[in-house]
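User: Quick one: structure for sequence A, then sequence B.

Assistant: Sequence A:
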Amino acid sequence: MSHTAHIRSRRKPRRSATTSLAVRAGVAGGVISMAAAGASTSASAGETTQILQLPILTTELAAQVAQSAEATQQAAANYQLQAERDAAAAKAAKQATADLAVAKKKAETKKKAETARKAAADQAASRSAERTALAASTAPSAPTSSSTVTSSAAAVIAFARAQIGDAYVLGAAGPNSWDCSSLLQAAFKQAGISLPRVSQDQSTVGTPVSLNNLQPGDILYWGSAGSGAYHVALYVGDGKFVGAENPSTGIVEKPLSWSPPTGAVRVL
């Protein structure tokens, strides 16, 4: 056989481009189909898993809801407590304001009362001073007796006359009301003499004197000397006395004939 004789080739003939594209398309289609099938299978598996886990998620959700409800209830309780505290604080503040207003009003009232009391005391002191000065200026220059009025007796008489017009109150001791013995006690204090407080004791101090030999400044008494004495007054001369007589007359100056005394004592 000639070496140039035709020998059939053992290689497979080349595929055309169209054939190659078709094959490739087929392979790609198969792969896509498999992927789709896998996705479908995965989706089915996922749905199964979701269905199986649903009860678990529902229980957890219920626990969360319960926890949220408890938190809400606690928050509501806290809000309520805070509201009650705020209301109590507002009420306390309102009460404090009211109490402060009442306290201020009481303080103002007390201050006004104290001012009025001081004004009344000043007025009484001024009136007493005026009466003292008036009594001193109008005092007789000499008593009816031959004795002259000593400076001590003049001071005692001036004080007693300055109280003329004041009230008689049993147990009172000035400055605007007296009883018979407190008036004499205060009058003799002007001369530096301390008398006992009651009529019975005042009727026995000093030296007993006759009613016919009285001097200004002598103490007159009614009843018997000592425990029997029930009233005292001051002899001021000219046959007159000054005394705290009774609630209807108060402190007056009267003649001895108006109510004749029982006896007298002298301490000046």
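Sequence B:
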Amino acid sequence: MNALAQKIIDAHGGLETWNRFSSLTAHLRQGGALWGLKGHPGKLDETDVTVGLREEWASHAPFGPEGKVSRFEPGRVVLRDSAGSDLDTLSDPRSSFAGHALETPWTELQLAYFAGIAMWTYLNMPFLLAQPGIESEKIADWHENGETWRRLRVTFPKSIATHSTVQTLYVDEAGLLKRHDYDVEIAGNTPGAHYIGGYVNVQGLMFPTERRIYPRLPDGSSLSEPLVVSIDLSDISLA
């Protein structure tokens, strides 16, 4: 890892502490325009999410008012009933988004895939920077709202399912995340600026509890509306 990546990981509690755990669970409250645009308003407004910290998987429960439970892995998404019986399955889910634009509706299984890659990425960041195959490099500083943020360009291997191959992290002087940029490939490469705050210490690790995602312009600046997605986390625990 480069020096900036190491500083960011250390600021969030360090790898030694992170490696004590294999999963993370949190309560989510979500909003924003995306869910209705994709045909699923309210389905994931309030739920619990659990993600793997050693392997890539995520589960939302409940997944919608019927009390379903999702299970996302890069090569397969499953929806189950509350008793654990499979209801529907999608293999090779990434390929199902071919030709999609921002306005293209999603099926329930596609929604579960998106929610899975999103929360797995967010909740494992920045410790993903230490994973084999993930490359990072420091790029020019960024000035916003009277602050100067250091930036790290991150390149993901094809083996990891996430928003886009190349993403950018913005951090403050202490090394805590302030913003996270990516292009949502499965929604027509829609560019997003994802703002991060509300840090809390959980079992020796620093986690943001407030996330707000807005459209990003070609020059890197962001629009103040529409609010694409809001995420508020509580009751974070690691096991």
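The domain at 3-238 is CATH 2.50.20.10 (outer membrane lipoprotein receptor (LolB), chain A). DSSP finds four helices and 13 strands in the chain.

User: Thanks, that's what I needed.
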